[in-house]
Amino acid sequence: TQDLDTFNLDLEGLAVEGVAVEGADTPFQHEGRELTIDPDAVLATGVETTVVVDYGGSPTPIQVGTDVFRVGWHTDGRDAYVVSEPAGAASWFPANDHPVDKARFRFEVTVPSDLGVIANGLRTTTEDAGAGRTTHVYEASDLMATYLASVVIGDLVFVEETAPTGLPLRSAYPRRLADAAATDFADTAAMLEVFERRFGPYPFETYGHVVADEVLGFALENQTVSIFGSDLVTGRGTIDAIVAHELAHQWFGNAVSPATWMDIWLNEGFATYAEWVWAEASGGRSIAESARATHARSDFGVPPGDPGPEELFQATVYLRGGLALYALSQEIGDEAFARLLPLWVERFGGGTASTDDLRMLAEELSGADLAGFFDEWVYGAELPPLP
Ligand code: TRP
Ligand code: ZN
Q1: Over 90: is that where the pLDDT of 1 sits?
Q2: Cβ neighbours around 176 below 10 Å, total
Q3: DSSP 252
Q4: Predicted confidence (pLDDT) at residue 67 exceeds the cutoff of 90
Q5: Hey, whose CA ends up nearest to atom 10 of ligand 1?
Q6: Distance from CA of residue 286 to its chain's centroid?
Q7: Cα distance between residue 92 and residue 150, in whole Å
Q8: What is the DSSP string of 316-351?
Q9: Do 208 and 246 contact (CB within 8 A), yes or no?
């Protein structure tokens, strides 16, 4: 978007051996998270450039904000998994580690041959790499934010199915959890149908779940292959809300990513709302009842549109965020709201969108002036009463 004398990539904890820009050895500095590259010639606006970074080392996860959980590449030296949201991609590859800079990814992972590998997208080849090792190649053909890139390595059982819609479903579970996982993820195809009806076509080439052999206490919506902690998988079939939540992120968060991290409620509020959609569609409580029950816990403290950099994933972002979307549906009416969600993905899918983009789209569909509505529901200190 502008001429550059120098440019920066994010990379933390790994050593850079060399950088080439358009094939030419190029000076660089690497301090902390900043890799500053200083090409001989100015990089001109709008001209594509190839940059190769030669780097290596043993990745360690990164501390972001006040979250005690560190993000990025985790390994015990044998198994590995990646959970990067919001800024952990820099722990394992150099990138402009922000959702505005999406890319297509190809992963070439060489591991001892008794280990399995899954990554975003589809497996294209598996080749003997000699010395008891195997190289697994995955390609993700849709644009993806860096924080959603993931590789999982472990003693994995692979399950390959096709959804009624024709979508390939590709999952991988630690061997001892395979039966429990089959039960806990059994509703995925039904959820896909419900969400495609509400949100528009599923945005990617495949979907599935990978269970890390690690007590994580959470799940993360890595693009095309959501990751779950082993503790979530019990075989009791009680995690539908989480399964629905991560699936919904494929539309809201992954296809349409937040323009800034302050817009994180566009991910988490929408995914929370989608939990309510699935509850209603599967014979549980109605969306309105879910909204009422959530509203009753109105001790959120902070507005969803301004959680601050230290606590991006605090409850208000999820719950008051979900309430804001529900309130918007009431404000603009069912007809406009039914068009809003698929149009949001159609218009902004493959890129990013902001809270203002949502306001303008909702205004376009309803003809209403929604500035006051967003001020109250997204940015207001007090949780407004439910409409
Ligand atoms: N986006 C995740 C969810 O709500 C939560 C999350 C944010 C997370 N950052 C994370 C999970 C880092 C694991 C690691 O589904
Ligand atoms: Zn979420």
Answers
A1: no
A2: 11
A3: B
A4: no
A5: 85
A6: 27
A7: 10
A8: HHHHHHHHHHHHHHHHH-HHHHHHHHHHHHHHHTTE
A9: no
